[in-house]
Design goal:
The chain has 2 domains: 4-144, Trna Endonuclease, Chain: A, domain 1 (3-Layer(aba) Sandwich), CATH 3.40.1350; 158-283, Alpha-Beta Complex (Aspartate Aminotransferase, domain 1). The protein contains 7 helices and 14 strands. It has helices at 16-25, 74-90, 107-116, 164-170, 173-189, 233-241, 266-283; strands at 4-6, 36-43, 49-55, 62-71, 96-104, 122-132, 135-144, 194-197, 202-206, 209-210, 214-218, 223-228, 245-246, 255-260.
Length: 287
């Protein structure tokens, strides 16, 4: 079988709509996992239509996909980011990633795209079309992946260490006592864990080694408690049912952030314990 590389941009029959249909039939061809189609030509308020909206059925992460025949250009990058931003604002409980698919992604534009990465979860995929016996076949290669950072400050140097008193000054004695209360929940899961006071957060330590599957950031009136967990519908429902206040999911470090006040109900305690168990299981071994 002889394969001949062709340009879809110059082809009279195989259009962008055809490419959309091929991906919609089997989103896995993008090599982003076993995704499902959520929508096609999704209308954007005052901003045209999103080519494809795909979703991971397990994590519920959504991918805003824009297709470009020929070489990627400035307008394509801007449009992709704009659609991604629209969708994440409309549905903030989901994790979102912007995906650019183009036949040609030059080094120049790859450099431009990479500047956004880390702040905007951008994925660039090079699409190639081959013709054989009158049939056209597509291949996709990821040339730029989204950057995922670890939990901020967890690699904080020794000189950035703090102590309990410094956190009492930042928040209050009352709030630190709530941290102690939350730590009793953690100890039901990891009995040897102790609090490790750092400049920007309070983490966990076991036998002098960091194990930050849960962290705390005390504020003046509450504590932001972080759980290293993938974003799943079952966790969303668990948190909602307990009436816990959530902050925006941290997609870079794959972590839920929950604002815990001074009055914790019995149901909330049970939910925090369950999330702690799941976070420990998900986190694995020590760092």
């Amino acid at each position: 079988m002889t394969l001949r590389k062709i340009s879809l941009k110059r082809h009279p029959t195989y259009t962008e709509s055809w490419v959309q249909s091929e991906i919609a039939k089997d989103p896995s061809i993008l090599e982003l996992g076993d995704l499902i189609l959520r929508d096609r030509e999704r209308r954007q308020d005052g901003a045209g239509r999103l080519d494809l909206l795909l979703q991971d059925p397990e994590t519920l992460k959504r991918y805003e996909v824009e297709i470009q025949l020929g070489a990627v250009d400035e307008s394509h990058i801007i449009r992709t980011i704009e659609y991604w931003d629209n969708e994440r604002k409309r549905y903030p409980r989901y994790e979102h990633a912007a995906v650019i698919v183009a036949e040609e992604i030059t080094g120049r534009f790859l450099n431009v795209i990479s500047l956004f990465n880390g702040n905007i979860p951008l994925i660039a995929i090079k699409m190639t079309a081959y013709e054989s016996n009158g049939q056209v076949h597509l291949t996709f290669v990821k040339v730029l992946d989204e950057v995922v950072y670890g939990l901020e400050d967890e690699d904080e140097p020794v000189e950035e260490a703090a102590d309990r008193q410094s956190w009492i000054v930042k928040s209050s004695e009352r709030i630190l006592k709530v941290v102690d209360q939350l730590m009793t929940i953690v100890n039901k899961v990891e009995p040897d864990a102790t609090l490790k006071y750092n400049k920007h957060y309070i983490g966990l330590s076991i036998h002098r080694s960091a194990l930050n599957f849960v962290t705390f950031r005390p504020r003046k009136a509450a504590i932001n408690m972080t759980f290293r967990l993938p974003k799943l519908a079952e966790y969303d429902q668990l948190i909602e049912d307990a009436g816990l206040e959530t902050l925006e999911y941290n997609s870079r470090s794959r972590a839920y952030r929950i604002r815990v006040g001074t009055d914790i109900t019995e149901q909330q305690t049970e939910t925090l314990l369950e999330l702690t168990k799941k976070a420990r299981e998900s986190f694995g071994g020590q760092e």
